[in-house]
Amino acid sequence: KQVPVLTIDGPSGSGKGTISRLVAVRLGWHYLDSGALYRAVGLAAAWSEVDLSDAEAVAACARRTEIEFRTGEGGAEPHVIVNGKDATHQLRMETAGAAASAIAAHPPVRDALLDLQRSFRRSPGLVADGRDMGTVIFPDAAYKVFLTASARERAERRHKQLKDKGVSVTLDGLLREILARDARDAERAVAPLRPAEDAVHIDTTGLSIETVVARVLALVNP
Ligand code: C5P
Predict the structure, then answer these.
(1) pTM score, two decimals?
(2) Where residue 134 sits, what CATH number does that domain have?
(3) How confident is the model over 10-35, as pLDDT tens digits?
(4) Which residues form the Cytidylate kinase domain (predicted)?
């Protein structure tokens, strides 16, 4: 019998990360933060001064980058160790998001991360968070969710998240960056952000985290 997978896809700031981690804890399943893999590769490429527009060079970098997740307690954000360095803080910065989005457009880079992502599918189950979890990586997933929220609400959430971490950025700047990244992710030729045909859509605008977690859990345990 196949290990069950719940995919949670959506744009940045839709609440995917928070919701996915909490749902994984409640179900006692493993958790894959695929965005962190793209961020880590973007960062590793920048560290070794690889040209981010050179698809093959970045793909080679993706294959040799060591990425380790140190699980947080009770749904806390896990620490991410990239080539032996704790990169957790750097990875959350908008510069890492932009680098991730740039390198994620290269097909060889996506191929390089394919097997690694699928290797997270281990018993008793997996919650996979990203852009193409339900469409490309786990098309056979039993449960698929597509989370959205208005751009303004997503910018406000990111703003609060960064402020809590002591990073100062303007809301308007964030909104612009989010809209630019959305457009790039939706319009790219490979694995563009789009819902799987069989995904359940949840618009999280104005909903509490608990409400969204409950709705997602209800899909798995009706
Ligand atoms: O989800 P997160 O904001 O961490 O993702 C960072 C970037 O990585 C996204 O903007 C997207 O371009 C890319 N990504 C992707 N496929 C995934 C996860 C993330 O292309 N499955």
Answers:
(1) 0.91
(2) 3.40.50.300
(3) 988 888 999 999 999 999 999 999 99
(4) 7-221
